[in-house]
Amino acid sequence: MVTPTPADQVVILIPTLNEAAHIAGVLDQILSEDRLAQGARVIVADGGSTDGTTEIVGDLAATRYRNLRLIDNPKRTQAHAMNMLLKPDFAGTTVAIRVDAHAQYPRDFVSRLVAELDARPGVASVVIPMDAVPTESCFRRGLAYVADTKLGAGGSPHRGGTASGYVDHGHHAAFRLETFRILGGYDTSFIANEDAEYDRRLGKSGRRIWLESSIRIGYYPRDTIAGLWKQYFRYGVGRARNCLKHGDRPALRQMIPVIHVVLLALSLLALPFTAWGWLWPVLYAGLLSAVAVAMALRHRSLCGLVALPALATMHTAWGLGFLWGAGRGRPQAAMPVRGLG
């Protein structure tokens, strides 16, 4: 019989940066009805918020959640926040739960994740699927309709997937800290894709990752084209750097946005000389238009038409980001913080 991990060996870490609109709700979802979470250490690692996030957390720590602590994350990124768990302060902690402030969580999130790790002693981490949440913004609703489809997420099992099983990568949720320490945590030279890079090292070390589809979170998509562009450009850069660092070939689904960008570039070069230069732009625009109309009809909302500019932004930004990241050459990995194991 497996001995359950006690609450005092669990740490919940929440990286934040200007999350005043969501942080109180996230803490309530995580802590209000989960006895294991109520007995764990809860750390909000703030990267310099200026919108009142730290004041909200400080008030909740003083009045409602005595196990909640606010710490500074001067280097701002999620990777640096998570690597704080490598410090001696957490030497007696065996399980880490990563919580993103910009998401929705089931009320038993922490206890179910810890139970999954306890039930799978051969697993180094448990990852979970994310489901895009349609909100009041028409742009966000339309983006949520399409974000987790194959055209949006490329068929990633943790983006709207419904099957549990062993995977190479997924949305990070629960870690065995012994493994996290041995591997040196996240590579902090990555500003995106640091989770996939960690999973790559974990897989190369012979350890396994379990995707548990019954534990799901909702995430809020970006609410502007500019924000979406920045997000997917960084994703593309991160994927390219990951491939270069580990000598991996990108999957075919990951190359489709790159092929799209190359075809667009060739079309622009050809247009002054031949009408054939319109072939790819017209075919691509027609495909996305059909998808947008289908989304509008399926959801009975004109917001579904957002799929056209949203998908075009995601594909083009990701492809350009990948090419830019690949052009920078093989990254020099940051020196990891030394772990305890």
From TrEMBL:
- Answer whether the UniProt record assigns the keyword Transmembrane helix to this protein: yes
Q: Which UniProt keywords apply?
A: Membrane, Transmembrane, Transmembrane helix
Tell me the superkingdom of the source.
Bacteria
Which SUPFAM superfamilies would you find in this protein's record?
Answer: Nucleotide-diphospho-sugar transferases
Q: Which residues form the Glycosyltransferase 2-like domain?
A: 12-140
The UniProt record lists the keyword rRNA-binding: no
Report the Pfam families cross-referenced here: Glycos_transf_2
Residue ranges of the TM segments:
278-297, 304-326
Cited PANTHER family: SLR5056 PROTEIN, UNDECAPRENYL-PHOSPHATE 4-DEOXY-4-FORMAMIDO-L-ARABINOSE TRANSFERASE-RELATED
Q: Please give the name of this protein.
A: Succinoglycan biosynthesis protein ExoA
Q: Which species?
A: Celeribacter indicus
